[in-house]
Amino acid sequence: MSEKLYSVVFTFILTTVFVICLAGINAIASGTIERNEQLEFRRSLIYVFNIVEDARSLPSEEVQKLYMDRIQEIDGEQTVYIADNEGKREIAFTVQSAGLWGTITALVAVDESGSRIVGIDFVNHSETPGLGGRIDETAFKEQFRGERISSSSSARIAVVSGQDTGSKDDSKVDAITGATRTSESIQTLLNKAINDVLPAVLEAVN
Fold it and tell me: I need a labelling partner for 92 at 20 to 30 A (CA). Which of 17, 39, 80, 131 fits?
């Protein structure tokens, strides 16, 4: 075998081995990433349904057990999640809407009648850390629990500044200081959730 041919064959074999190794590593990593994403999504479901007090600190085994025992998944055009919480049926679904820097994906839970928010979690977003990124803070998300959904299609839950938001019947929560655009995006996202997604969700489960 000539030296030139040997170099070509050696390079080809080395490249093939390298590509196979990379493909194997990627396959293993992809499976791990997918499992972790599924775990965190199920943790978010437990949080929005308020099944336990501190879902964020639950061990992964407990997350999986609670999900299997307490939450029913209904596949369809829009995947719906149902929980029986102290005898009350509650419904959760995902919704996406534009944020300041990208798409915000939220998990929204409502009561069976679709008249009150049970909980909300933001499972994916690109909002600015320390500003719009504060939508991840528990204090912001907990405002939505039990909030009555307004009949106004332009402000199902108004995200406002400088107003009294103390009542769960006023359909208002406090905006994030210094993050006006993100706060507006959350109101838009909830309008979309209630106006566009919820009717199909309620039809699917009733």
Answer: 131
Query: Among all chains, which residue has been given the structure tokens 């419904």?
Result: 91
Using alpha carbons only, give the angle 67, 127, 197 rounded to the nearest 5 degrees.
50
Q: Which amino acid is at 94?
A: T
Instruction: Summarize pLDDT for 92-126 with one digit per residue, the tens.
Output: 999 999 999 999 999 999 999 999 999 999 999 99
* Backbone conformation region of residue 200, classed left if phi is above 0, alpha if psi is from -120 to 50, else beta: alpha
Contacts of 194 (CB under 8 A, 6+ apart): 114, 149, 153, 156
**What is the CB-side half-sphere exposure of residue 106 using CA atoms within 13 A?**
30
Q: Write a three-state SS string for 137-199.
A: CHHHHHCCCCCECCCCCCCCCEEECCCCCCCCCCCEEECCCCCHHHHHHHHHHHHHHHHHHHH
pLDDT tens per residue across span 6-35? 666 667 776 777 667 566 666 555 556 888
